[in-house]
TrEMBL record:
Organism: Ruegeria arenilitoris
Alphabetical UniProt keywords: Membrane, Transmembrane, Transmembrane helix
Transmembrane regions: 24-41
Pfam families with a match to the protein in the record: DUF5993 (PF19455)
Species classification: Bacteria, Pseudomonadati, Pseudomonadota, Alphaproteobacteria, Rhodobacterales
Protein name per the record: Uncharacterized protein
Length: 51
C-alpha cells in the first residue's frame, strides 16, 4: 500500500511537471483519500502474531 501511495505521488509530480495540473490535482486528492483510509484502518490496527 505504501508503494502504491508513493507511485501515485510520483504520478502527481510527473503530471504537474508536464502541465497537466487538473489531472495532477485529481490524482493528488485520490492519494490523500487513500492515505487517510490506510492510516485509519491499517496503520492504527493492532499487530497480531499468529503462531
Amino acid at each position: 500500500m505504501i508503494a502504491l501511495l508513493f507511485a501515485l505521488l510520483t504520478a502527481v509530480m510527473a503530471l504537474n511537471y508536464f502541465g497537466r495540473t487538473k489531472a495532477g490535482n485529481v490524482v493528488f486528492f485520490l492519494t490523500l483519500a487513500l492515505s487517510v483510509y490506510w492510516l485509519k484502518f491499517h496503520a492504527t490496527s493492532q499487530l497480531t502474531i499468529q503462531l
